[in-house]
Amino acid sequence: MRIIKQAPESVVESGHFCFGCYNQPIKHVNLLDAKTGGLKLFKNFKLREWQAYQLYSEEGWFVMIALYNTKKVCIVQFILYNIHTGEKLHYEKKVLPRSLKIPNGLIDTEARHISKGFDFSIHHNISKAQLALNVKLKGSKGLPSLNAEFKGFHDCDLYTPCVVCLPFTSKKGMYSHKCLMPLEGRIEVGTQEIVFSKESSSLILDDHKGYYPYNTKYDWATALGFDAEGRRYGFNLTDNQVQNQEDFNENCFWLDGEMIPLPPVKFSRPNGVNQNWIIKDKNGKVDLLFSPEMNNSVQLNLILLSSNYHGPYGKFNGHVKSEDGRLFNLKNTFGMGEKFFLRS
Predict the structure, then answer these.
(1) How far apart are CA 231 and CA 242, in angstroms?
(2) DSSP characters for 202-254?
(3) Do 113 and 67 contact (CB within 8 A), yes or no?
(4) pLDDT tens track for 153-202
(5) Count of CB atoms within 10 A of residue 284's CB?
(6) What is the Cα–Cα distance from 82 to 60, expressed in whole angstroms?
(7) Are strands 146-152 and 48-57 parallel, antiparallel or unpaired?
(8) The CA-based dihedral angle spanning residues 181, 186, 188, 192, taken in that order and rounded to the nearest 10 degrees
(9) Pair 291, 330: CB distance under 8 Å
(10) Which long-range contacts (CB under 8 A, 24 or more apart) does 92-95 make?
(11) What's the N-to-C CA distance of the chain in angstroms?
């Protein structure tokens, strides 16, 4: 199992990435200081960055929020999904890079996008355990107007994050801060109000930046819920182009604030992306079956830009096991997966 270390002050120090896996926030998220070659303007153009959020309520709601900036393709997204009925409201807009702000770090910073009918504002201050998420969307094309206000309890002393700086090469890498935390708030959609209570709702945050390869591909899965004892749990599993994944990966299971590292995994889809996915490691610590219920897909084929994305929602069954032998069984845990390819 990989070593979890104390976090450095900065992602990049003296021009070099501080590669490692950590259980504390990194104060200075300064990837543009890396000696990757070229001026900062060029490095910024190559840097992909996003913030993504998965929200879950035991009352049967799942929300996906993303502000995604590759500097060539930029998307803001809000998806509201009714787990019981399968009804989905999908708000999405392609925007210009200059209109989408992804901050450097989570200490008194704001992620933001404002355009006609789309208003996203996400304020972070982990030094005060604060996360405020506000979205205002004007109805159009058959979609009702939507207002959402959420408060995440981003207390890293109570809810241990999974923070990583991982190598693609010796000079290029990625940073991610992921954390499972309690959530409260509400959504007004049309004439309906949906309440998320702290006792029965959770949020997983992903603050993410990286110098990804020109041809990028990865498999990813996440889910969150509550067990029979009322304990909040969730997981993150990724298989990407990071080197030496035995030592460098972002796989973990959260249980009541504890972050439990997991080993590298592989995804297989013997019958295609719309049928069962099998997610396993080589030593039996991760053994999950993901059954898609609703698929999201995007395909784009241009000369210099191509994408093939599948992001279904569905349920996970199986188990994960900690290094010290604890077994965590998952039964119909709701979440999502991604099969991702981007040439950009």
Answers:
(1) 32
(2) EEEEEEEEE---SEEEEEEEEEEEE-TT--EEEEEEEE-S-S-TTTS---EEE
(3) yes
(4) 999 999 999 999 999 999 999 999 999 999 999 999 999 999 999 999 99
(5) 10
(6) 6
(7) unpaired
(8) 110
(9) no
(10) 93/117, 93/118
(11) 33
